[in-house]
Amino acid sequence: MKSLLLASACALALGPVTWAATILPDTTVSPVDVIASVSHLDIATLPNTRASVTAEEIVKTINVFTPEDTLRYLPSLTVRSRHVGDTQSPVATRTSGLGASARSLIYVDGVLISSLIGNNNTSASPKWGLVSPEAIERVDVLYGPFSAAFAGNSIGTVIAFTQRMPTKLEGSAQLQGQSQAFQKYGDDDSYGTWRFAASLGDHIGKAAFRLSYNHLDAHSHPLTYATATVPTAASAAGTPVTGAFNDNNRTAVPILVLGSTGIEHQVQDNFSGRLTYDLTPALTAAYTLGLFSNKADSTVNSYLRNAAGQRVYTGQVNIAGRAYTLANTAFSNGVYNVNELLLAQGLSMASASAGVFDFDIVGTRFDYLKARQRIPSGALPAAFTSGAGSLASTDDTGWYTLDAKGTWRPQGIDGANIVTFGAHQDSFKLNSPRYALADWISGPIGATQSFSRGRTRTRAVWAQDAWTISPKVTATLGLRIESWRAYNGLNYSAAPALNRDQPEIKRTAVSPKAVLAYAPSGDWRLKASVGAASRFPTVTELYQSITVGTTLQVPNPNLKPEKALSSELSVERLWDDGSLRLSVFDERIEDALLSQTAPLPVGSTTLASYVQNVDRTHVTGVELVASRRDVLVRGLELSGWVTYASGEVEKDAAFAAAVGKRLPGVPRWRGSVVASYAVMPKLDLSLAARYSDRQFSAIDNSDRYANTYQGFGGYFVADAKARYRVSGHLTASLGVNNIGGRDYFLFHPFPQRSVVADLSWTY
Asked: Looking at the 3D structure of the chain, how many domains does it have?
């Protein structure tokens, strides 16, 4: 019902007449003097369907604390941001869920921030902290693997952040605060966050620079819960306690919620900068830097009380006439300390002669200088202050990329052909030991408990020709050839015992692309796209360790790459004040890399859940995107999108129960509507709504109870923002996210009503 209401709202609010598109930057320029910005990845020349949001649109319509907030209303994207400053915020696309982070490529000024060491929604989430929100000039999103310039990780999307470069001396300072009211089970509290940011930039002769500093102090609501399955038989054993809450788990089995865990306090500091120098009028060199520090502490809240009113965390307890055994880790796993220091760098040289030939060379490097998590193993409350534990480290993990691109215009700038070609190399390294600690809070590193490592390397060459056959018809043909290698893999564990060097594997892939665009008039655009893509396994998919009984197994270090065949048909209508686009998309993947249950070892009766190649998946859907300026009255802008996607597992030899089931992470209906109104020259108001129906996370759809911890429920959430320009230099804004305080889960409980205040000064 809500999906139908959303679709109807889009149609009624936007009307059948003129529209304005967020999908083409050149159709959304406001009638003011602006300096056009161009994405570092030259998005405008690529054949993909795209969506964009500019800095001006961001400050008018979005309550932005962190860079991923800028994606909130872009078509068919969902960001799982559990709280402000969350370092585990992956992106879901129109064909892939939140657990498929390796199907997205995310760049900041050409620097890759997608963590392709994994394909999950935790350690492999994008490294958003290296972007300063106030420095963002625009965000561009590409849909589908239809450009030969990008690897198969573009199956879902390519997202390019372009940061602003000054044309004269400029500076800014920003102070933000947020308060969230959260109520769930035994938690009823407010969680506050504040942020300070400053930037400085100038353009001096041939050089330009921008420096940004960002400080964030964030308190999160509970992210996880301690639960226990309700026994079928009554018992008088154990110490009587009270305070637990009755619920069901995602498979509809009755559980007790014993307390909340993962209540984080994060302090983050981000320093970023970019320096450009014009070697000649047509040749520019640039250096990009991002340094991110994150220090986080997490605590827990046990709802359980004994007869004396004391909190209970562990041991034999009795709740409502049934006995439970609470392990030390039931609550102590939610207590931890994180210390991270990440460094991103990029060096590029690009020509922009607009002549017969131009080139672009970009090298980037991303280093985990420090990435450590300390966690206790003993029982609370004693473990709050001391005791044994472990340290998980990913120090010395990272990646580098190197790209060389040429643009050849054989007939000149206005010729029929624009040929682009290039070469690519990347390398990803995982280094992940776990050590014993006698004192988990500050003690020295002890014996190695486990160790995983591995590397992947990809080399590619590609070429693409955009051929203007006639003024109305353009054909873009492309080909990408890739050579991939995984090596230096090791899995070690002291207990259960495991010590295995993994085999080196090599794969090659050839990925053709074709796009045919037809513009019968200046107002209409029709496009047909098809593209093949191969997404190679990540290090953590290859070298996963699974505990089976009392032993450790490495299921399959020879996983095959995902092979996708994607296609899209789109029609777009343009007007002076807008446009409307309708796209029909289809994605078929062979050997999809998904987590599912199967025998381990192969042929045994013991079942385990781990990443495997699923024979064939299929997603098809429709996406409608539109917006309009000056609706009914001057200054009122409306935009919206709605997406329907039907995804299923078509073939799965290893897990027959999954065949015919809905594809995990892909809801059938999603959409958003945004309205903004310039009440007066100094005051802007905006109101937005986001909707998604429920989705499944289990490949056999056994998680049928959605609105619970670890379930993926549907939601309808409204946001609002008011921005007032106090003076030419000072701007204030006040906003609310989740106005109705909607209580919903995307595995984790999501933020409820949050009030955001912002004061910004610019020079």
From this structure: 1
